[in-house]
Amino acid sequence: MNIKRNSVITLVIILFILFIQGCKELNPEIPASKLPAATSLPVLPLEVKVDDCDDNDNVNAWGGYWFTFDDTKAPNYGISEVNPRNGAQFTMSYVGPDWPGGPGSNLWAARMWGKVIRGMTGFAYPLIGMGSGLSPQEEPQDISNFTGIRFWAKRGAEDTVMTYRISFKHANITDPSKQDAYGFIFSPPTSWTQFNIKFSQFTQQSWSLPLDKMESLKLVQGIQIQTKNPDPPPGSSYNSDIWIDNIVLYRE
Ligand SMILES: [Ca+2]
Ligand SMILES: [Ca+2]
């Protein structure tokens, strides 16, 4: 009887000692003032949305406005036609059931369509395009800490413009030859396809004066996409219809 009782007492004492030891370990005797200070490193998101267009207005997630452009203004005075009309408020287009996520999973996208027209005389390099500012007043934005841009695109089945160029808008730079110095030419198929283009893949326009690429990435007013087709013969035109959606800038 006594042996059993002594064993129980011994076990209780051992458990108590273990408990005290455990408490000591849980409460290291280091004053709070000696603990290393918490450091907060800036965490940059891996992906930042430019626009998914699904609120169906002409403003993107950065507060910038969507727009179209063509060759009709000075100094080109061409006769190409773009829709939504150059200078009018941009409107989104409704995404049909061909979206890979199925009907209704994506509502609106940015779309530009029209004709790249070359007259018998006059401007010989006709073009149309659309774009989106990266701030309400298109103040230059520094996007040099991003790796590249991802977006979805498709073109119309009947189009005769099959290649487009995505580039940065630099309209504040007084030398027009530097306005879209760096870009990337891509060929959207007739079904929705995601493009992933690193800024390292952007190349300089052959006719533009060099603007340092890092300088360019620090002064971006907007992103623009324009027709990049062989120039039509005099008196002829090409059809263009391009859809763009789910644009993000990303970091790797
Ligand atoms: Ca919007
Ligand atoms: Ca959308």
Question: Topology, please?
Answer:
Blueprint: H1 2-26, E1 47-51, E2 66-70, E3 81-83, E4 93-94, E5 108-118, E6 128-133, E7 148-155, E8 164-169, E9 182-186, E10 193-198, E11 203-204, H2 213-217, E12 222-227, E13 236-250
Antiparallel strand pairs: 1-13, 2-6, 3-5, 4-5, 5-13, 6-12, 7-10, 7-13, 8-9, 8-12, 9-11
Bound molecules: calcium ion (2 copies).
Description of the structure:
- This protein is mostly beta strands.
- It has two domains: 2-29; 47-250, Jelly Rolls (Sandwich).
- The protein contains two helices and 13 strands; from the N terminus they run αβββββββββββαββ.
- Strands 1, 3, 4, 5, 7, 10 and 13 form a seven-stranded antiparallel sheet that branches.
- The longest helix has 25 residues, at 2-26.
- Bound molecules: calcium ion (2 copies).
Examine the secondary-structure arrangement and name the CATH architecture of the largest domain. Sandwich
What is the global morphology? elongated
- Write down how many β-strands occur, each being a DSSP E stretch of 2 or more residues: 13
Radius of gyration: 30 Å
**What is the helix/strand order?**
HEEEEEEEEEEEHEE
CATH fold naming of the largest domain: Jelly Rolls
Number of helices: 2
CATH homologous superfamily identity of the largest domain: Galactose-binding lectin
- Return the CATH class of the largest domain: Mainly Beta
Number of domains: 2
Question: Strand count, sense and closure of the main sheet?
Answer: 7 strands, antiparallel
